[in-house]
Write a structure and sequence with these properties.
This protein has four helices and no strands. Helices cover about 90% and strands about 0% of the residues. Helix 1 packs antiparallel against helix 2, helix 2 runs antiparallel to helix 3 and helix 3 runs antiparallel to helix 4. The protein is elongated and about 70 Å long.
């Protein structure tokens, strides 16, 4: 129990740290980087705002997952993880991953159709596979959570 408590506490610290790091990343770094790229490569300047919007969208998806994970940790602390309340947070994580995946696939297709070298398409393919695995894993974990919630509810009804 002490190990779980410490792990949850450490996870909370790193979730806060990650969320705080992502704020300047999405508001300053990404827009600045794409503005710089537009100045350096005027032929690709038309991609500045779409690329900025897509990158910020992905960061927002990560932030949604962080907030949902925080809420799930609250439910763990209150010993309410196997309740219907936890399913809405897991559903939100699944939808955030699905939204990020859909945009990633669209970007992958665009890049594959317009790429001169295989570097970026291969990188995007790896990211697409990784996000697909993460999304499907969340779906499986959600099904397991639903089963555990049903079992706990049934056991509490018997007791």
């Amino acid at each position: 129990m002490v190990v779980e408590y410490r792990a949850v506490a450490a996870l909370r610290v790193f979730l806060v740290l990650l969320f705080l790091v992502l704020i300047p990343f999405e508001t300053l770094s990404l827009p600045g980087q794409f503005a710089h790229m537009a100045q350096e490569s005027p032929q690709d300047a038309y991609l500045r705002w779409p690329a900025t919007a897509v990158a910020v969208f992905w960061v927002v998806c990560v932030q949604v997952v962080i907030v949902c994970t925080w809420q799930l940790l609250n439910l763990v602390k209150k010993d309410r993880i196997f309740t219907e309340a936890s399913l809405k947070w897991v559903d939100t994580i699944v939808w955030a991953v699905a939204a990020a995946w859909a945009v990633l696939v669209a970007v992958f297709v665009y890049v594959v159709l317009n790429a001169d070298d295989p570097g970026l398409p291969v990188l995007l393919f790896l990211l697409t596979v990784g996000v697909t695995v993460a999304g499907l894993l969340m779906v499986v974990l959600r099904a397991l959570l639903r089963q555990a919630t049903t079992l706990r509810t049934d056991m509490e009804a018997v007791i």
